UniProtKB/TrEMBL annotation:
Residues 82-283 form the Alpha/beta hydrolase fold-3 domain. It comes from Kutzneria buriramensis. It comes from the Bacteria. One of its GO terms (molecular function) is hydrolase activity. Pfam families: Abhydrolase_3. This is Acetyl esterase/lipase. Keywords: Hydrolase. PANTHER family: AB HYDROLASE SUPERFAMILY PROTEIN C4A8.06C, ALPHA_BETA HYDROLASE FOLD-3 DOMAIN-CONTAINING PROTEIN-RELATED.
Amino acid sequence: MTYAFDPELLPWLAMLPQGLTIEDVDAARGRMAEMAGRFLAYEPKNPVTVEEKLIPGPAGAPEVRVRVYTPTSVAGPRPAFVSIHGGGFVLGDLDIDAPGCFEIADEIGAVVVSVDYRLAPEHPYPAGLEDCYAALEWTAAKASELGVDPARIAIGGSSAGGGLTAGLALLARDRGGPAVAFQYLGIPELDDRLETPSMTRFVDTPMWNRPNAVLSWKYYLGGSPADQYAAPSRASDLSGLPPAYVSVCEFDPLRDEGLLYATRLIQAGVPTELHHFPGTFHGSSAVVSAAVSKRMAAERVDAVRRGLQGGKS
């Protein structure tokens, strides 16, 4: 199928591995690490210290590794952002997440806690989500030690990270867990039913497509049925959730589930901002030279900043 991609994105397509698939998980992890090496690292303009910690994991589970980014030139108490990397629930790590974490810490002055959650298929749902919940609980519990304002803790991620973020917001609400000030849902993976028009149509789009989505959910669920925390689109009640920003890409199978979820958040009375980026595919924000990619990246920072300020500009 021919897609009307933004012209500035076309040269980057040639750099993508042909037939990108997660059918062979180990090979896909290797390709993602290789692709990450091509991205420009973010160089902070202000001092940001980085420290890795092992924190208590879910009951009966291993400790969770987190990487904490602290903007040392900003006096506390600072806002905080729990960052959840993407990768279809099966790929990604702390290094993939690093450029965005540096940017949030540097540009916003927030302490960023990046979560190295357990990946499927070795660790199917709810392992990854429970690791993220443990990181949120730890951030809130250690707010004083981290120099963080416990009333200004946001959560966010892109792709599967966006889906995990949405599930984490639901889990925190329903468990009476730490207060979440804001949720950033970038091109989120939310619905295991795979029935939206964009999901059924986009079978050969770059970076992400229906065949990969089918495998992603198969690995993540491990043969068990999805509940609303695994697949937030299944949630019947979205009221009482934190304010949200949702982004979607035009030629992305995840497009419609993001649009529908944002609409339902609005209908449930949740302050929500939604942006659909024409001419883009899944992961377009990584193309640092394209104007549309620069807008996507800038909006991420601005949305988190405003979310941590209670919506104020």
